[in-house]
């Protein structure tokens, strides 16, 4: 199997590291060679964070170059736009529509770009955009945005739901498991 590439992008503190850990666990359990690389920006200050997940028969490097990402999973819409050059021509963006103001917007030095979903689609990118924060809140915690996104991402994989659930069970503390399973289902079954 040719190596597939997933970029998980967001802002520090949104749960992107748990999402990459879950994906790595899921794909390894399916028999793939998996490499996960975490690239931290100013994550503790709300800065950009990116994680690479690569899988296939044999993966030699954890790094994804421009134009190589099969999927970009974005926790924040501006981050999807920031990392767009890394998406393959026929790649897929799965993004939360939530907006988190970066420092230049907070300080008044810049305005938050408008209509980003439309602008992403105008580039020819395939964009699956959901209000994951609302779905996570409905599941029981605003912190479950990461699991809502994984539920949505599951649409693009030919893997049984039981495999996704097994990864949740292996990586999420018992007291949060049911809420996270609900978040996964809400993301998976959402219509946009």
What order do the strands of the largest sheet run in, or round the barrel if closed? 2-3-1-4-5-6
Question: CATH homologous superfamily, by name?
Answer: Pyruvate-ferredoxin oxidoreductase, PFOR, domain III
Average pLDDT number: 91
- List the domain count as a whole number: 1
Instruction: Please report which band the strand proportion falls in: under 5%, 5-15%, 15-25%, 25-35%, 35-45% or over 45%.
Output: 15-25%
Radius of gyration (Å): 16 Å
- Portion in helices: 25-40%
Spatial gap, N to C terminus:
32 Å
Sheet of most strands: 6 strands, mixed
- CATH architectural name: 3-Layer(aba) Sandwich
Structure, explained:
This protein has a single domain, classed as Pyruvate-ferredoxin Oxidoreductase, domain 3 (3-Layer(aba) Sandwich). It has 8 helices and 6 strands; from the N terminus they run βαβββαβααβαααα. The chain has helices at 16-29, 77-82, 103-106, 116-122, 132-139, 145-153, 161-171, 174-189, and strands at 4-11, 33-39, 48-56, 69-74, 87-96, 126-130. It has a 6-stranded mixed β-sheet, sandwiched between helices.
């Amino acid at each position: 199997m040719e190596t597939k590439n997933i970029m998980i992008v967001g802002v520090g503190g949104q749960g992107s590291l748990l999402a990459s850990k879950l994906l790595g666990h899921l794909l390894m359990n399916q028999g793939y060679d998996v490499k996960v690389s975490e690239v931290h920006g100013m994550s503790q200050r709300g800065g950009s964070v990116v994680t690479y997940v690569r899988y296939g028969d044999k993966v030699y490097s954890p790094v994804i170059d421009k134009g190589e990402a099969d999927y970009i999973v974005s926790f924040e819409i501006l981050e999807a736009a920031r990392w767009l050059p890394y998406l393959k021509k026929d790649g897929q963006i799965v993004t939360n529509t939530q907006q988190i103001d970066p420092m230049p917007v907070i300080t008044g030095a810049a305005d938050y770009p408008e209509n980003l979903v439309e602008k992403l689609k105008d580039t020819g990118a395939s964009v699956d955009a959901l209000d994951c924060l609302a779905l996570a809140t409905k599941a029981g915690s605003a912190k479950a945005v990461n699991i809502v996104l994984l539920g949505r991402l599951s649409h693009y994989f030919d893997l049984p739901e039981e495999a996704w659930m097994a990864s949740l069970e292996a990586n999420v503390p018992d007291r949060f498991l049911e809420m996270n399973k609900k978040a996964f289902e809400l993301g998976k079954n959402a219509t946009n």
